């Protein structure tokens, strides 16, 4: 979908401001929310479930409605603290910003989102007349209230599509035509900004029957970073797994998991198969790491640094099927990585394909203590056994 240089369309929303220090709270309220008796204080982390989250300092809830003179105290209990929600994992995320916004007179909270749907091979609007909680919970509690409107990507959104959403959410909305236009604008924003998800939860109906975005979450397609430079300049790497940040800088595909066996594989399909075989043998993969088909020796070294930085890793499995990727390059990378990184865990290596004999010779002559494997099944079995030793 083509991007545009025009600013994204605006949807009615609450007024607010983000602050990073406690000293900014009072000044921000005076400048942006001067007439508010109450404000909403929201911890800013890239995860859902904030309202039901718990801080590691014991403070409960990442979203609070408070009197204006209490905002500084509540913000102080959030800033610099670690918030744990059902989406952050046990490690939680550090709150470096809080968002202060006006408290709206709401009569109903609804759910609205646009996602990319594989089943329809295009954008899908999902909405529910109940909101304020996750769509998974809503679908479980109110399955008959879920509205799904697939959008023809070639035709774009129509008045009829938008009307299905509005009439299903708020049949008594004050200005139906305006609300239909707002849904269309949200869809256009989804396309123009290269979103993979646009979620408004809650989409609120006010006491005067208007629809307002009370909160929003957007995901953007990483492949569109070259044409969405302004958006990607806002990326906060402190909210991301530092291993994933390091991997991205090294042009490696890495996703951290919670297992004990670190994996380094070439090719996404082989990486998935490796993880499956590890599970089949009773082990748990610590990550997905695809070095690609043309990795350099330096990238292999960086991959090992990332794997060994995970304290949960008890063994490393290197599974390479050399095609474009040459086994001797991988072997040299492993040897150089061992010189730079203190390998305190067993390393299982399975090499096959282009220059495999040269690769095996490099490893043998390195003097390293490695566990070699003949095939994937053998490699996974040995890696699982190594974690128990």
From TrEMBL:
**Coiled-coil region(s) at which residues?**
none
GO cellular component, alphabetical, reads:
mitochondrion
GO BP, sorted A to Z: tricarboxylic acid cycle
Q: Which cofactor does it need?
A: Mg(2+)
GO molecular function: any one?
magnesium ion binding
* Keywords from the UniProt entry: ATP-binding, Ligase, Magnesium, Metal-binding, Mitochondrion, Nucleotide-binding, Transit peptide, Tricarboxylic acid cycle
Entry EC no(s):
6.2.1.5
Which residues are listed for Mg(2+) binding in this entry?
201, 215
Report the subcellular localization: Mitochondrion
The record's Pfam families line, in alphabetical order, gives: ATP-grasp_2, Ligase_CoA
Instruction: Locate the residues binding ATP.
Output: 42, 49-51, 109
- Residues annotated as binding substrate: 266, 323-325
UniProt domain ATP-citrate synthase/succinyl-CoA ligase C-terminal: residue ranges: 264-384
* Pathway assigned to this chain's UniProt record: Carbohydrate metabolism; tricarboxylic acid cycle; succinate from succinyl-CoA (ligase route): step 1/1
Question: What is the cofactor note?
Answer: Binds 1 Mg(2+) ion per subunit.
Catalyses which reaction(s): succinate + ATP + CoA = succinyl-CoA + ADP + phosphate
Listed InterPro entries: ATP-grasp_succ-CoA_synth-type (IPR013650), ATP_grasp_subdomain_1 (IPR013815), Succ-CoA_synthase_bsu_CS (IPR017866), SUCC_ACL_C (IPR005811), Succ_CoA_ligase-like_bsu (IPR005809), Succinyl-CoA_synth-like (IPR016102)
Q: Where is the ATP-grasp fold succinyl-CoA synthetase-type domain?
A: 19-204
What this protein is reported to do is described as: Succinyl-CoA synthetase functions in the citric acid cycle (TCA), coupling the hydrolysis of succinyl-CoA to the synthesis of ATP and thus represents the only step of substrate-level phosphorylation in the TCA. The beta subunit provides nucleotide specificity of the enzyme and binds the substrate succinate, while the binding sites for coenzyme A and phosphate are found in the alpha subunit.
Assembly and interactions? Answer: Heterooctamer of 4 alpha and 4 beta chains.
The UniProt entry's sequence similarity note says: Belongs to the succinate/malate CoA ligase beta subunit family.
What's the name of the protein? Answer: Succinate--CoA ligase [ADP-forming] subunit beta, mitochondrial
Give me the gene this protein comes from. LOC107820527
